[in-house]
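Lab notebook, bench 4. The sequencing result for the construct came back, and we need a structural model before the next group meeting so we can plan mutations. Quick request posted to the team channel:

Model the 3D structure of this chain.
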Amino acid sequence: MIQTTFQPIDAAGASFKEIGMEIPEHAFHASVQVGDDGISRGVPHVNNAEYVRWIDRLAEMATDAAGFTRASMLGENRMWFVARHEIDYRGEAFEGDRLLAATWLDSWTRTTVHRATAIIDASEPRPICTAVTRWAFVNLETRRPARIPPELRAAFPAGHVKGATNP
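Done. Here's the predicted structure in token form:
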């Protein structure tokens, strides 16, 4: 089995612009090399459920890059939980494809963020998938939403968040 791999890259905004997708300047970008681990058995393309894993992995990488790893958040008894995914499947991806992905925070509340994700085929380019995920910041002791701390908000520049509210 060949695993799908993710590699952070410098901004790939020009590729997104070629197909009319505006990506914020401070978005996190990654290259995705599609393996065979998420290929459907009946139709040889990436299974729709695999995109949910990719969206989660990209969010983890972006948050890690901002200095808030899952290990550090667990140490504080806090974690991001998915409250809602909205995914638009716009094209197929296949084993061996090289994709480009971007993810960024779109808006904040006191306890949640909306993170947008766009994935395109790097070779054509063409859209593969777009998504918006509402993430809740959760206190693991109480299993209730927790206030997003100012230091976490500060890790994402204001230009990175459309419609950001003050901490």
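Strands lie at 5-9, 28-33, 78-89, 98-108, 112-121, 126-139, 144-145.
Will bring this to the meeting.
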